[in-house]
Design goal:
Layout (H helix, E strand, L loop, with lengths): L5 E4 L8 E10 L1 H12 L20 E7 L7 H7 L8 H16 L7 E4 L24 H8 L22 H7 L6 E9 L12 E10 L3 E5 L3 E9 L5 E8 L6 H26 L12 E13 L6 E8 L4 E3 L6 E3 L6 E3 L2 E16 L12 E8 L11
Antiparallel strand pairs: 1-7, 2-3, 2-9, 4-5, 5-6, 6-7, 8-9, 10-15, 11-13, 11-16, 12-15, 14-15
């Protein structure tokens, strides 16, 4: 069966991610070659036969812990970027400087596990590489269709169509019209499982773990973190390897754990205080059973058809028997003055004067109350009288 991809939603900084990969050699064709050679040419002295591989023992283990987008050079990259002639980009020249520093410090040693990060030129070629060489671990139908779709991290020219649904549909139409692009960064933890000190070969480079982080804070890991489950892979010489992938979690001290708990409690208290201040603590009691509470929200918008200028509106509420209002609430009011303007629909005076009021009654029976509240409106004209005084 195909390897499963685990997806996690995390808002923590992805720079804190650390992955530990353990690679172990299970069987070696070099051991079998030594055994066959020994039995083909037996020793005549009767001395004890030492069954050791010529280059690397079976059961040898290599571990590596890498962080997010941490670059670990492979043997083939060391040979390629070690020569300045092969370095054309800024990233490749940076790798050349790292290799030169390793030469000065004499830090060269054979490491099988390396990484391929987002800035590498060949990171897109690793997307469809299988994570296993087992023939029984075939791709599922869904994974096969997903790999046929466009990679999410690549920039592509996309022009939306007026009619995205096309009948009859084809694979080309589905790829160009029905694939949602999400910006993401990728990283691959790889291994060179070829001969220990032979020339590096591209066919011996395999992907052990694929990690993707998109803009929706979705972290995709293939295969999932599991230190107890080993995945097998085989190189071109028939050597079988097993590897495990696990997340490195740094244990927090008791002091830091107590401090984190105090910070979370303080944050929760501040959030609760903010909500309390926004909502408040004074709430209106619901009306008694059988009573009514009416909230009136209105606006005197405009007056149409009046020829006089400097108009204002005088309004008042009339409450029949059984109705009342809150204390200190004005039941009448005046709008501002407005000039009359000539429009296509006639002469209009705009006011846009809002008002609101809360009315109560003690019973909902029509026979016990004197009707419904009414609003009286009076349109008035404001006159200015100028008096001249003259001293004789």
């Amino acid at each position: 069966m195909a390897l499963v991809t685990a997806r996690h939603i995390s808002h923590d900084p992805v720079s804190n991610l650390k992955i530990k990969v353990q690679l172990k050699r299970i069987t070696s064709t070099t051991v079998l070659g030594n055994i066959a050679e020994t039995f083909a040419n037996p020793t005549s002295t009767g001395q004890e036969i030492e069954l050791m591989p010529r280059q690397e023992e079976a059961g040898s283990t290599e571990e590596a812990t890498v962080s997010w987008q941490e670059k670990v050079l492979s043997q083939r990259e060391i040979q390629l970027y070690g020569d300045l002639i092969n370095c054309n980009t800024v990233r490749e020249r940076h790798y050349h400087d790292i290799i030169e520093g390793m030469r000065e410090r004499n830090e060269f040693h054979h490491r099988r596990i390396y990484t391929c990060v987002e800035e590498d030129p060949a990171v897109g070629d690793k997307e469809n590489m299988p994570l296993t060489t087992r023939t029984s671990q075939a791709l599922s139908y869904l994974e096969h269709k997903i790999r046929q779709a466009r990679p999410a991290g690549r920039k592509q020219n996309y022009t939306p169509l007026q009619h995205p649904v096309q009948v009859p549909s084809s694979d080309v139409n589905r790829k160009s019209n029905h694939v949602q692009l999400v910006a993401a960064q990728r990283m691959y933890i790889m291994a060179d499982i070829g001969r220990p000190r032979g020339l590096p070969r591209p066919e011996d480079e395999v992907v052990l773990c694929a990690v993707t982080m998109d803009t929706n804070h979705v972290l995709s890991i293939t295969p999932p973190f599991d230190s107890t489950k080993a995945h097998s892979i085989e190189n071109s010489d028939g050597d079988v390897w097993e590897y495990t992938v696990e997340q490195v979690v740094q244990e927090i001290s008791d002091k830091d754990q107590i401090r984190e708990q105090e910070v979370m409690e303080e944050l929760f208290a501040r959030h609760s205080s903010l909500l309390h201040n926004m909502v408040g603590s004074v709430f209106t009691d619901p009306p008694q059973e059988g009573a009514e509470r009416v909230h009136v929200f209105g606006e005197i918008a405009r007056a149409i058809g009046f020829e006089a200028d400097n108009l204002f509106v005088n309004y008042s509420f009339d409450l029949p028997l059984g109705w009342c209002v809150e204390e200190e609430v004005e039941m009448r009011g005046l709008t501002q003055r407005s000039h009359v303007r000539e429009t296509k629909s006639g002469q209009i005076a705009h006011f846009n004067h809002p008002f609101e009021m809360t009315l109560f009654n003690s019973t909902s029976k029509e026979e016990e109350i004197g009707g419904r509240p009414r609003l009286f409106v009076e349109v008035c004209r404001f006159k200015i009288r100028i008096i001249f005084e003259q001293n004789i």
